[in-house]
Amino acid sequence: MAVVRYLITVALRRRVVLAPLATLLGADAALYSAPPNPVLATAAAVAAYTLPIQLWLALTFFNSLHDADRDVLAATVGRRRAAWLRLLAGGVLTAAAGAACVAYPVAAGRFAHPVSAAELASCAALATSTALAATALAALFAEPTVRHPGQAGLGLTLCTLLAVWLDLPPIAVARAAADSAGWRVALGIGWMSVFAAAAASICSVLWDRRA
Amino acid sequence: MSVIRLEAVGKRYGRKHRWVLKGISAELRHGEAVVLQGPNGGGKSTLLRILAGACAPTCGRRLAPRLGSVGYAPDHLGDAPLTVRTHLHHQARIHRANCSMSIDLAARLALAPLLDERLHDLSAGSLQKVGLVQALHAGPRVLILDEPFSAIDTAARIALCEILAERTGDGAAVIFSHHGAAPAELTIDRCWVLVDGRLRESA
Fold it and tell me: What is the pTM of this model?
């Protein structure tokens, strides 16, 4: 946990993640400002609409570590472990941001009715799985795999457009939640979790080889 | 007894790029000090990164000790927006080292007055001292230092040589890259020279 704490501290102190964080929370507040906001449908729509911001946040986080600091970390804990710890730190940061996106409407009473524990758990699972999938996808386009920020941005934009075109989660989850298709929401959450794990595994190998 | 061994290690950064290192087989032994020399762009930093485990060789293999027993100082440290004290505190926790060891080393390298300065406000020499402290503070069995004397002042150079002599005396292996004659204050056991990506040992 010392490594995760260090990586998040450096990213926050560099302030590079503050812009995507502020944009994410601002977008969350704006999307919840129009009632009636049915619980799961709105949470799923917010997760889908804020996906590009989550990608921006994760990419900025991963690229905030200097090459030399990455080398020192790899020499200290091992290259593969350092890659997994970077992924874990990115996941913690984006999951915390996702949790804040769920906490705000609950605390501010923005939902159409009081939120039950089951609904809250569903929203949390949705926000977390979306954040982790976004983190893993951004990691595939982060340094040292992709060194040019423009190429990384272009790649992530294409992936987002592809998700919309092919109706992949979290877009599909937002549609399913709006249609009250609970099983499809659960399926989407599971799909995103599997995607996050697979992409993170590929990324750890890529980071190891590209170091 | 060797602490790190390289077997036929080669390195290139991409298929279209030239080979930086070619067929390097070498070993670093307990208690010895090795200086690595070679021209600019000759692959010294790459070789040190491979020895440290920070970089994977394109071919060949590196046989290394358990994790946590390598102290690595790159030629320039990242200027994270932390104070020296906070940075060293984080690094000590990552290395599972005692913070007081960092403070002692900082004092020996005349870094103590700068502990509350931010890393990006430090001069190149002071930043290099921070890198050296974080490489040294966990008492590693192998010390890999990339041009450690390039920016530090004479007093710090003498102090660093004393520290390195103590560490080799305790059985640690030390390798560092350096241009020109090695510091007179330090006994060098071997000299590696990189020429055209190949390693030669000279007297």
Answer: 0.89
